[in-house]
């Protein structure tokens, strides 16, 4: 990821409705949600939601797929991973132990097999 791509992702998330939309889609992974349902859940007019989803899609943060008459939107978790990696790529100037609190905070999202219950 380069600076321009990262800036596009951050810019897309820098508006309240788009940030709420993205977080909603993350909660509904992997199934995703139809655009109308996103608009309903966030109480946003359909045409406004369409614009917000377009901004998120152009930034690569959401992907869509047509299913019959509906368009299902999903969070692009790979882009999230790339963005987080971009932010911490040079973590703590070569002292990864200083980044351990950040890594600990991310573990509940992705528990390792050793953390999983037996």
Topology (elements, then pairings):
Blueprint: H1 3-13, H2 16-27, E1 33-34, H3 35-42, H4 46-58, E2 62-67, E3 70-75, H5 77-88, H6 100-106
Describe this structure in words.
With 118 residues, the chain is mainly alpha-helical. It has one domain: Arc Repressor Mutant, subunit A (Orthogonal Bundle), CATH 1.10.10.10. The chain contains six helices and three strands; from the N terminus they run ααβααββαα. It has helices at 3-13, 16-27, 35-42, 46-58, 77-88, 100-106; strands at 33-34, 62-67, 70-75. It has a three-stranded antiparallel β-sheet. The protein is elongated, with a radius of gyration of 16 Å. It starts with a helix and ends in a 12-residue tail after the last helix. 16% of the residues are buried.
Overall structural domain count: 1
CATH architecture level-2 label: Orthogonal Bundle
Shape: elongated
How is the CATH topology named?
A: Arc Repressor Mutant, subunit A
Secondary structural class: mainly alpha
Distance between the termini: 37 Å
């Amino acid at each position: 990821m380069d600076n321009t791509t990262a800036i596009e992702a951050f810019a897309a998330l820098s508006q309240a409705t788009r940030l709420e939309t993205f977080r909603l889609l993350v909660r509904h992974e992997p199934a995703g949600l139809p655009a109308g349902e996103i608009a309903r859940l966030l109480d946003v007019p359909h045409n406004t939601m369409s614009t917000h989803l377009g901004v998120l899609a152009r930034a690569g943060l959401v992907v869509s797929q047509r299913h019959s008459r509906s368009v299902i939107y999903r969070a692009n978790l790979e882009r999230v991973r790339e963005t987080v990696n971009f932010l911490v790529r040079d973590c703590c100037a070569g002292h990864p132990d200083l980044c351990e609190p950040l890594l600990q905070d991310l573990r509940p999202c992705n528990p390792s097999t050793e953390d999983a219950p037996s």
